[in-house]
Write a structure and sequence with these properties.
disordered C terminus; single chain; about 270 residues
Length: about 270
């Protein structure tokens, strides 16, 4: 079974305004939960909000992309979309969970052109164990288990294609168990959802150690992790803020969006860190 083809744009504008520009790197959850970018766009009066969707960019025939390539493309798309905006307007690059490393790279590429701040919301840093765990979780949801992923240290395109093939076989077996003569479209949509998630996690895993941006980029982290330190940096490199209470660290709520926008309003015009 092959995933349906239909690549989505990596960076798209959700709202317009004359205030600070906000780029939000996030994902459509595997549930009906809202996206952080959508909640921010709904509440961000006077700001232009852009959604950076790395999974969407990998939803078609493009199986894999490195974080540096995705960051280059997102920064270029933002510049093109903001060509007529005031060059002195500050930019905030917001990351949700595992998009932290990508957002730091995007922020670094925009530094020097604008006053740039990265806002990391409950950041995570996917590694080998995490990719393996998520692949096993997806197999379990498809009624299969026990097969390891392809070699994560090998060619990443081949690795993603291999994971897609294994999950496609699992979906075909599920269709047979359910007595379906042909796998429904929903199965293909599920396959592309799983594949793009694994492809992005693999790109994050392959980008370690984390690339810390230059001192021209201010960094604020919304986290409830005690003693948080940005990987590869020092405690003074970023300021930390407690996010609003939630059932899970990755939960997306209107209160979280309001907290992010509060930080956008609280940042000084210039923020240079160690």
């Amino acid at each position: 079974m092959r995933a349906v083809v239909g690549t989505k744009p990596l960076c798209s504008r959700l709202s317009s305004g004359d205030g600070a520009a906000i780029l939000v790197s996030d994902f459509q959850p595997l549930t009906a939960a809202p996206r952080l970018s959508s909640l921010i766009a709904d509440a961000a009066v006077g700001h232009s909000v852009h959604q950076v969707d790395p999974r969407g960019a990998l939803s078609g025939d493009r199986l894999y992309a490195t974080l540096p390539d995705l960051a280059d493309e997102a920064a270029a798309a933002f510049r093109a979309g903001e060509a007529s905006a005031a060059p002195g307007r500050p930019v905030f690059v917001v990351a949700h969970c595992s998009s932290a490393a990508l957002s730091l790279r995007i922020a670094d590429r925009l530094a020097g052109e604008r006053d740039v701040t990265a806002l990391l919301v409950q950041p995570t840093w996917p590694d080998t164990a995490h990719v393996t765990e998520i692949f096993a979780e997806f197999q379990g949801k498809l009624g299969a288990a026990g097969r390891p992923p392809p070699d994560l240290d090998g060619d990443p395109l081949s690795c993603v294609a291999g994971m897609e093939q294994l999950m496609g076989e699992d979906l075909a077996a599920m269709a047979t168990r359910l007595g379906l003569g042909k796998a429904p479209l929903a199965f293909s949509e599920l396959l592309v959802s799983y594949r793009t998630w694994l492809a992005f996690l693999l790109a994050c895993r392959n980008d370690r150690p984390v690339e810390v941006p230059s001192g021209a980029v201010g960094i604020t982290v919304l986290t409830d992790e005690p003693g948080f330190v940005l990987p590869g940096s020092v405690p003074q490199r970023c300021r930390t803020v407690l996010p609003p209470p939630a059932d899970r660290p990755d939960a997306v709520t209107p209160e979280l969006a309001a907290c992010v926008l509060g930080e956008v309003g609280n940042q000084p015009s210039k923020q240079h860190e160690l």
